[in-house]
Amino acid sequence: MKKTFLTTTVIILTALAMSLSAQNRKERKILYNSSYNYEVITLGVGVDGTKLIKVWGYGKKPHKAAYAAKRNAVAAAIFRGFNPGGGAAATPAIIKSPDADKVHADFFKEFFSTGGKYLDFVTVSTDGAPGGKNRIKMKRMYKVAVSVAIRYDALRKYLEDKGIAKRLDSGF
């Protein structure tokens, strides 16, 4: 009787621990697939209207991860902004509205498509040179860091012209 109770208790506790672990994996997957899950470090200020940043991307191949990093760089400029660093002040997000990606979903789907318009605002990039800390092989994918110069002012003007972002002179 005691042995059966102990065995049942161990099985129940094991099942409970596995279910809690599965929830954590599910939550991690949701966070990983989030459109706001990107790492960005400000390296400095480039020529007028340009921001220099280092951004990471994930992909099954290194070149796909590098393109994902470029996409993440432009998305960070639009939705999140950049923290201060490298002698540069903090840069605010171009679009302040938290649901802008849903309101203008058709525009952003085309804008961020493969070979999309977002690449026009990435001027210089390292494309995740092999070796060192810029390219990390994970289980089934690569994590690649790319140094990028974003044409921030041109991106802002483009989004304003398309009616996606509010003009700076439009008031509050």
Description of the structure:
By secondary structure, the chain is α+β, with helices and mostly antiparallel strands. The protein contains 5 helices and 5 strands; from the N terminus they run αββαααβββα. The chain folds into 2 domains: 1-33; 38-170, no CATH class. Strands 1, 2, 3, 4 and 5 form a 5-stranded antiparallel β-sheet that branches. Mean pLDDT is 80; it is low at 29-33.
Topology:
Layout: H1 2-32, E1 40-45, E2 50-59, H2 62-80, H3 100-103, H4 105-111, E3 122-125, E4 135-137, E5 142-151, H5 152-161
Antiparallel strand pairs: 1-2, 2-5, 3-5, 4-5
| Number of H/I helices | 5
Mean pLDDT across every amino acid position: 80
Q: Beta-strand percentage?
A: 15-25%
Question: How many strand units?
Answer: 5
Q: What proportion of the residues is helical, as a percent range?
A: 40-55%
Using only C-alpha atoms, the radius of gyration works out to 21 Å
Written as H for each helix and E for each strand, in order along the chain, the element string is HEEHHHEEEH
What key phrases describe this protein's structure?
5 helices, 5 strands, elongated
Question: What can be said about this structure in brief?
Answer:
Helix content is 41%, strand content 19%. It is α+β, with helices and mostly antiparallel strands.
